[in-house]
Amino acid sequence: MRITSTRIHFIIIISFLFACTERQLTSNPEIQRFKSGIAPFGDSIHVLCPEGWTIQGDKSYDDTLPDPVVKSKIPGIQVKDPHSKAYISLFPDEIFFDMERCPTGDLLTGTYPVGSIYNGMTVASFRSPAEYVKKMLIPAANPTASDIRITEIIFNPGFKESSSDPGSAHPGHEGCKLTSAIITSEYKENDTLFLEKFHCMIVDYGQMGGGMWASRNTWSVRAPEKHFRNVAPVLSTVLLSMVFDPVLYTKIINPESIFEASESLKETSNSLSLEAIMESMFTDISPVRKFKNPFNGKKEFGTSYWQERWQDSAGNVICSRNKGYDPSLDPGNRDQSYLLSEPFKM
User: What is the pLDDT of residues 63-111, one digit of tens each?
Assistant: First the structure.
């Protein structure tokens, strides 16, 4: 077969792109810039986005419908690198209906097969957090994934005996059980082995729920397995930065940020602490650190992987591993209004 010059150029370009991606994932940057971003569907979720990465999302919920018909109370978003190798995903909440667990399910057998919609709910057999991740989440989010394995499950015992669902105000849902877990998975995609860690909460509405169950407060971080440790500081910074519109997120836990919830729940439900969740997600790579916003004095979460954190008035952040770094002397910064974020003190 004759290889033309055009084909050679194409091969060189593709090889260059993959080489760039490889360098981005393998290198531990001394300086990392994050842009203050808003999910595309509106101003309900604010997040720091690494320079060169993108934010994607969709408004897949309808807050005009009464619970429990609402399929999803929060929108799904994804912050990912230019080649979708590494990302942070926030999954929409969903309510499911298990026909076999419904007292009148026999009357509906065959009418609503698995995957169909019954009264606004997806028909599916009840799943534990690990089963939900392996059999439903990963295949749906990554259709080409193969050899899916769950390599570690850390249960959050504070939710096993909980008697109320933080994502539902429906009066008939008292007495439901919550199971929360941090789940580590591995799978292949186009011959690349990926490692993806999930925080997943499953709600069992029990006998009073008549076959209903739901996923709540589920998110994940992913990177190629051999590069996960290198990308962890960036992933953790993004995850810790997520701030939700209070009205949108009130039905779940009403936090200032996704991890603020972990601390408040720890006091009431003996849940995993913020530090414990991050240790499980990132294996002590990026310990949590609290900072004070230099412009409004509010508490913000970050990682102690970097020595210093600088912020401008627009919310953009520069993280540096070098204490001698000065943004005002960096020609790469168009905005010279960066101030140093001091450690947050109560």
Answer: 443 343 334 444 578 899 999 999 999 888 888 999 888 877 666 667 8
**68 preceded by a cis bond (ω within 30 of 0):** yes
Residues 6+ away with beta carbon under 8 Å from 317: 33, 34, 36, 48, 237, 241, 302, 309, 310, 311
How far is the C-alpha of 214 from the C-alpha of 203, rounded, in Å? 5
Section 127-138 average pLDDT = 95
- 163-167, 259-263, 325-329: range with highest mean pLDDT: 325-329
Contact 321/30 with Cβ under 8 angstroms?
A: yes
- DSSP-derived letter for residue 273 is P
Q: Using CA of residue 310, residue 233, residue 346, residue 256, what is the dihedral sign?
A: positive
Longest Cα–Cα distance in the chain: 72
Contacts of 263 (CB under 8 A, 6+ apart): 273, 274
Map residue 6 onto helix, strand or coil: helix
Distance CA 215, CA 171 (A): 18
Give which of 90, 105, 131, 63 is closest to 212, Cα–Cα.
Answer: 105
Report helix, strand or coil for 128: coil
Among candidate residues 179, 171, 167, 165, the one with its CA nearest the CA of residue 252: 167
Residue whose entry in the numeric block shows the structure tokens 């910074």:
237
- Average pLDDT along the chain: 75
> CA quadruple 273, 275, 281, 283: dihedral positive or negative?
negative
Strands laid side by side in the 288-292 sheet: 299-303, 288-292, 342-343
Partners of 178 in beta bridges: 203
- What are the C-alpha distances in Å from 138 to residues 78, 185, 188, 249, 282? 14, 9, 11, 24, 19
- Under 8 Å between Cβ of 154 and 280: yes
